[in-house]
Amino acid sequence: MLQAISPECAIAIAAACALACLSSAPGARAQAEPLPPKGADSVHAIYERLLPQIEKIPIFDNHAHPGYADDPDVDAMASPEDESEAFRLRETNPELAAAAKEFFGYPFDDFAPDHAKWLEDKTAQLKREQGTKYFSNILDRAGIETVLANRVAMPDYLDPSRFRWVFFMDSVLFPFNNTQLEKRDSDEALYLSIQEKVLHRYMKQEGISSLPDDLAGYEAFVRSVVADNQKRGGVAMKFEAAYFRSLYFTDPSRDEAEPIYRKYHAGGIPTNAEYRVFQDYVFRRLLDDALTLHVPVHFHSAVGTGDFYNLREGNGLQLENVLRDPRYLGITFVLLHGCYPYERQAIWLAAMKNVYLDSSLMEQLMYPAALKNSLRAWLEVFPDKIVFGSDAFPFNAALGAEVDFWFGVQSARKALAAALTEMVAEGEVTEARALELARGYLHDNAAKLYPPK
Ligand SMILES: [Zn+2]
Question: How far is the CA of 321 from the centre of ligand 1 (A)?
C-alpha cells in the first residue's frame, strides 16, 4: 500500500529533485554569484568561445536609414549643420576609418578631404558596377539578413527581399500653418519644413490638392495613407514626434478636435494649445488605424540630433499612458533607441507583452564597454523583448550608411558577447542559454513582429 506524504514533504522532495537536476546540468549553478568563482574559466576564455558563435548569427536589423547620401528620401529628418556631435560619431574617431578599411580597403587613417574623395570615388564605382546588388552585398558582408528601412519612400536600388519599409506618419499631425512652431528654434524650422513636404507627398498619393473640408474627411485621408503605405510594402509606421513636441499624448474627444480643424484647415495660425489638442486627437486615430490594420508602431524614444532636442519631453517614458492602455494591447509598439539614456527604466515598459525595446543608435553613441552594461541590464529582465537595430545612416558622400552598418553590428556583437560572458561566468545562464538569448536579440525577437515576406 502506498503511504500518503504530507504537502511539506512533497515540497521538500520536489526541491531536492530540482537541485539535483540543476547541479547535473553542465555549467549551471544553483545560485548566481556576484563575481566569477575561483578556478572557473576566465571571462576572456568564455568571451572567446561566445563571440565567434555570435558573429555567425544572421541579423535582423529593426531600424536603419539605408541609402545614398544624395537620396532625399533616406529620412524625414535632417541634422542641423552646427549641432554638437557626440564624441564617438565624430569623423576623428579612428573606428570609422577602420570600418572603411575593412569594407573598402580604405588606405588612410583619417577623413581629410582628399582622402575622403578616395572613398567617395571607390563607393561610386562599386555602385555603378553592382547596381541593386550593391547594398545587398553590404548586408552580406556585415552578416545582416533583413533590414527595416525607415525612409520617406523606398528607392529602386534597394532589394525588397532584403529591405522592408517603415513609413513615417508624423506629417499628418502638422497640417495647419506651422509658422508659430517654426519660430521656436532653428532646428524646428528645419524639421517642420520636411514634414510639410511629406504631407504634400501623401496628399498627392491620395489624389487631393487641398485638405478635406471636414474632420471626417481628414480622418479618412489619414487612414487611407496608412492603408496604402501598407499595400506598398510598409511593415510598420514610425513616429519621430519627439523632435517636435512632447511624447505625452492626451486623449481629447472628437468634439474638442472638430472645431479646431474647421477653424484652421483652410488657413490661420492655431495657438500651441489648440494645435496640441488636434495632434493628440489625430495621434489616437492613427493608433486606431494601427490596431485595425495590424501595423506595428515605432517611436523615436531617445536623445536626438540637434542641440534643441528636449530630453524631458522626448523621453520615451512619457509614452507610458499609451503603452499601458488596455485598448492598445493589440498593437505592437517598438521603442527605437531604447529610450537612451533612460534605457534602464525603459526596460520595465517591456513588461507589457506588446512593447519591445530596440537598441539602435545606442551602439553608435556608446562604446562597447558601456553598451555591455545596458544590454546586460535588459537581458536580465526581459531578454525576449529586446531587438537589435543599427540606425545606419549616410553621414556624407564618403562616409555612407555602409560603414555605419558595419560599425553598429560590430559594436553590438562585441557588447552582447561581453554581457552574456559575464552572465555565464557569474552562473546566471549556461553558454547554451546565452546563445539562445543572443539569437533572440539579434534576430528572432524582431523577425516575428512583422508579417512574413
Ligand atoms: Zn533612425
Answer: 24
